[in-house]
Amino acid sequence: MNTAYLLTVRETADALRIGRTNVYRLINEGQLKVVKIGSATRITTESIRALVGADAGEPAND
């Protein structure tokens, strides 16, 4: 079974070295997949890898 890991918005921003506002923009554009747990927003590491791979010229897995 493939285990999906989840990061907070702040952790995602730190990992990508961008601001939280840009993380929310990427979420709103559908470039990052989120999981809502109550009122908490978590971003899947899979979607972060896909985004970074797409920016590096590699095809993103949809």
UniProtKB/TrEMBL annotation:
Ranges where the Helix-turn-helix domain occurs: 6-51
InterPro entries xref list: HTH_17 (IPR041657), SinI_DNA-bd (IPR010093), Tn1545/Tn916_Xis (IPR038148)
Keywords: DNA-binding
Gene Ontology terms for molecular function: DNA binding
Cited Gene3D superfamilies: 3.90.105.50
Pfam family, one: HTH_17
Coiled coil stretches, renumbered: none
NCBIfam families given in the database record: excise (TIGR01764)
Name under which the protein is recorded: DNA-binding protein
Record organism: Aurantiacibacter xanthus
